[in-house]
Amino acid sequence: MTDVIDRSGLKPRFWQRKPMQKLSDREWEALCDGCGKCCLNKLEDEDTGEVALTCVACRLLDDETCRCAHYENRHQFVPDCIVLRPDNIDSHAYWMPMTCAYRLVWEGKPLPDWHPLISGTPDTVHDAGISVRHRTVSEFDKPIEEWEDFIIEEPI
Ligand code: SF4
Ligand code: SF4
Question: Does the residue 2 lie in any domain?
Fold first, then answer.
């Protein structure tokens, strides 16, 4: 998740031209498709390491825009929100959503047609049914003991 993204003026297919570690801050942020899936709570099996996705969203996720409601000062409210960076993607890629652009690029895969960098509009991530728009419940309403009842398949 990143903040509202300005993708103007970026070089075409910049993510294919250089390693992730060489992307500028703007390029790095532009990779985020705005799906909101990384802001859903997950359950990790301690024994197998398997990660299950739930539709229980972080308290700051806006279910309409699929953006963080307080991105700039989110750590005041959610101290453990992970800041994904080129130097920590190796440790986090395994739990990121399968369609997350950071994970796809890290895995050497192409971005899908609905990605805003390909389609030219942020709407396509919602139109393609990839985002979490109108699919979440808030963690305010669902205690962690109940999250197992809210496990979902990732929208892909
Ligand atoms: S899952 Fe990846 S692409 Fe989707 S909002 Fe999170 S960081 Fe952005
Ligand atoms: S604070 Fe919550 S909604 Fe905001 S970016 Fe982090 S996980 Fe997503």
Answer: no
Q: Please report whether residue 9 resides in a domain.
A: no
**What is the model's pLDDT at position 49?**
84
The gap between the terminal CA atoms of the chain, to the nearest Å, is 17
Ligand 1 contacts (CB < 6 A) are 1, 32-38, 96-97, 100-102
Q: Which residues pair with 44 in a beta bridge?
A: 51
**Residue 156: which pLDDT band, with cuts at 50, 70 and 90?**
confident
Q: How many Å lie between the centroid of ligand 1 and the Cα of residue 143?
A: 24
**Number of domains within the chain:** 1
Closest atom of ligand 2 to 81 CA is 6
Q: 71-105: per-residue pLDDT in tens?
A: 999 999 999 999 999 999 999 998 899 999 999 99
Domain of residue 60: give its range. Answer: 14-152
Residue 19 maps to a domain: yes
Partners of 43 in the beta sheet?
52
Closest-CA residue, ligand 1 atom 2, reads 100
Q: Calculate the average pLDDT of the chain.
A: 94
